[in-house]
Amino acid sequence: MATTDTIFQHGTLGLLVPGLFDGTITAKELLTHGDNGIGTLNGLDGEVIILDGHAYQAREDGQVSEIGPDESLPFASVHFQKPDVSAPLSQLSQAAFEEKVVADYRLTNVFAAIRIDGTFSYVKTRVAPRQQPPYKTLVEATATQPEFEGHAVQGSIIGYYAPHLFQGATVGGFHLHFLSADHQLGGHLLGFDIDQATLKVQHFANFKVHLPIDNEAYLQERFDNAAIDSAINKAER
Ligand SMILES: [Zn+2]
Asked: Coiled coil: which residue ranges (predicted)?
């Protein structure tokens, strides 16, 4: 039976920092661990948005398509959706939203999934550009990346809040992706203003990390925690 009290994460955000971009889990396997979530594809090829059992890729050319079962991902987080909070939101900036949600739903020290469906007066996303081996570092790979904007867009925000203690294993704080209802705009969320929407929050007692222990590059890497923290703040915010 599907467990709804656990985030399943494949890989770590930290492994992307030195450029370990090879896909190490298939989309098919990932979707057995959750029906909503976020990630990136093999070669850091775009941004992954998983909604209601369907995984989508937003590419650097601005196109969005559904991901095939055999495509692979170096990093992804998923969960089975069963929100414990559902609340209407209207006329809220990103900053006001983040402050309100952390306070109202006591997120500071917990893992939570955030999903917001509705109309956004403004959305700004970015999409990581596809890399070829030998891979550059995450900061180099994302130094120039396309950004996309929309006004009066209908769509869904999906992602997570994680305690700052877990920065490196994942992104400490909010990590949100967006997909418009017409699939014309997607990516890693850089900014948004909510017009009218429904917020769903799901708190998790469990954070499960699944590591690519058969991947030679992963086994050989010597991670530098300070570099990882700085790179996540540069590349993921
Ligand atoms: Zn992201």
From this structure: none
